[in-house]
Give the backbone structure.
Amino acid sequence: MIAVAALMVSIAAYGQGQFIFNNRIGSGATAEVDAKFQLDTDTGTTSSLAGTAYLVQVLGGKTGTPVAQLTPLGTTDFRSGAAAGYVNQISPVVPGVPNGSAADIFLQVFKGASATGTPLKTFGPYTITLTEAPAAPPNLQLGKTPLIVTTPEPATLALGALGLGALLAIRRRK
């Protein structure tokens, strides 16, 4: 009996809490992810991210863990059409953070279909108290303010590339 009790305590110590990541939850979290495109006039325009052109990576760990040491928990892309700016829901598990414990969650937005390279923007920390099955996982509350990712306008990038090409051509002639 003592061995079974010790086993149960040790299993609980290595528990893994879970939560739901969805930035559109009724009247709770409706934090749409928008891209603000930098224009030459610096006024910018805003457009909701849609489809697989951008990716959100969810990172998490015990409260107080530095961002560089957090565990990648999962990735998701964006909905399209009228739901653009909102992610496809995932329910990540945070390893080593048991039922009833707090975890810090960070979101990193990447351009493209993979979470490699430097993220365009990192959001967080969002602190959430995790649950384990059979309890229903809680929703990660992001609030109601849009999350803005600043990305350069394609024309600005093209102009920069043209200028760099001109500098290289001039240097090559000398």
Observations:
- Strands lie at 17-18, 33-38, 45-48, 54-62, 71-76, 93-94, 102-111, 121-129, 147-152.
- The first strand starts at residue 17 and ends at 18.
